[in-house]
Amino acid sequence: MRILTLLSALLLSACGLKRMLPEGPVLKPNQRDAAFGETLASAASYTSLPESDVPVLPFMVFGVAYDLDIVVVTEHPVWDMTEIARIDTPDGPLWLAKDARRSDLEQIIIADIPDLFTWMPEIPVRRVQGTVRVEDRSSESDLDMDIFYTNPDGEPVHISYQGKVPVAEQGKRNGSTMGHSQGTVMAVLDLPVRNLARSTTVRINGETQKVRKIAGLVPFTMALTQTQAGIAIAAIAMTPHPPAFPDAPTSTVDLTHQLAEGRTATQTWHVGRGSNGARLVQRSELRTIEHRFIGTESLEWTGATVQQVGKDEPALVITANPALPDLRRRFEGVVSSRFVMDVAGQQSHATGEIHAEWVDDDVVVRIRPDAPWWVAERPMDSRIHQTTNGFTLRTERVENE
Question: Which of 117, 76, 100, 81 shows the shortest CA–CA distance to 152?
Fold first, then answer.
């Protein structure tokens, strides 16, 4: 705890490094209750009937919880931050390496997963198939491990890490992304516990790397747990399918993601209908994504949830109020609502506005976060277009206005 206090003081005193410190919720409880206490229908004035029997997504969300995350920042001229993350799955621990180039800070995942390039396609990061080997001698209280893998440039990496199992609770958990993956995700982080390393050695291509020091004094290497969640860029084709029989309570939609390097991944989503709304749900072995809609004739988006298997709290709950307009129907003018993101059971990690309008033959959804600052820096636009087989959804990063 004394070391963490020193770290906080150093971060606060060092020019620019204050922006690395976690913050608290972006809304006070009374502000949140006033804005999101009662779900309201959209104020849209519709001028057409729905063009589909199934609801249409405004954008894609993601969420993933790491049970252990080793973070190291070195002075290497090419590579900035390296993370070695563990996800506890029903089949045992899954280890990932995540490297970010200094030039663009876009993270690249290295993992030994048979379907790596189509695994969790809602997360639009580059992936490299490779083994992450961990020699783990850790005890209940102390971490002691050696990690071996080959980075995206084909260089062997060896990280030796010793330190406490992360248990130091953080008073403020709303963590900064520190500039990583700016072009691909509007990300929020929940950082409940962390501890600094006692010793870390990083060798890349056989050469020992100097670990960067925070404020010139504290090595930037630590162990923590974290949940990452938010909204991602996407290029998706949505193809609805009719119910299996006329009175079936559900139908399905195939979502085909256009991935990097020409790859695609198709997942089937199920549409469940209730007396006053619908759900669009996709389940995998690791997580369930659910989008929620209210209405009968109209299906208006009110939010989404990402639930990871084995976790008590959702990785992400995003809520919109009032509901977004039904994107299957034409409506007049610009219709606006506010949104809030909750991560790992913690409320109000991020907030902002969503504006929807028709532009020619497309409906455009503009996501404009306003807090915290690292989310506000990443506005996005979605464009939904009707095709002969369904709809296309393209979400892109845009410049700050």
Answer: 100
Distance CA 394, CA 210 (A): 41
CA atoms within 13 A on the CB side of 57: 32
Judge whether 253 and 232 are in contact, CB under 8 Å: no
Query: Of 213, 254, 210, whose CA–CA distance to 236 is shortest?
Result: 254
> Per-residue DSSP letters for 257-325?
EE-GGG-EEEEEEEEEEETTEEEEEEE-SSEEEEEEEE-SSS-EEEEEEEEETT-SS-SEEEEEESPPP
342 vs 15, 78, 401, CA distance in Å? 30, 34, 25
What DSSP element (H or E) covers 374?
helix 373-376
pTM for this model (two decimals) = 0.93
- The angle formed by the CA atoms of residues 56, 386 and 303, to the nearest 5 degrees, is 15
From first to last of the 401 residues of the chain, give the pLDDT tens digit: 444 444 554 444 444 455 668 999 999 999 999 999 999 999 999 999 998 889 999 999 999 999 999 999 999 999 999 999 999 998 899 999 999 999 999 999 999 998 999 999 999 999 999 999 999 999 999 999 999 999 999 999 999 999 999 999 999 999 988 888 989 999 999 999 999 999 999 999 999 999 998 877 889 999 999 999 999 999 999 999 877 676 666 689 999 999 987 899 999 999 998 888 999 999 999 999 999 999 988 999 999 999 999 999 999 999 999 999 999 999 999 999 999 999 999 999 999 999 999 999 999 999 999 999 999 999 999 999 999 999 999 999 999 87
In whole angstroms, what separates CA 11 from the centre of its chain? 26
Amino acid at 121: P
Name the burial class of residue 191, with classes exposed (0-12), middle (13-18) and buried (19+) by CB atoms within 10 angstroms of its CB: buried
- For 181, the 3-state DSSP assignment is coil
Say if residues 296 and 14 touch (Cβ distance below 8 Å). no
Q: What is the DSSP letter of 74?
A: B
In DSSP notation, 198-223 reads EEEEEEETTEEEPBPEETTTEESEEE
For residue 146, give the nearest of 195, 200, 197 by alpha carbon. 200
Q: Which amino acid is at 297?
A: E
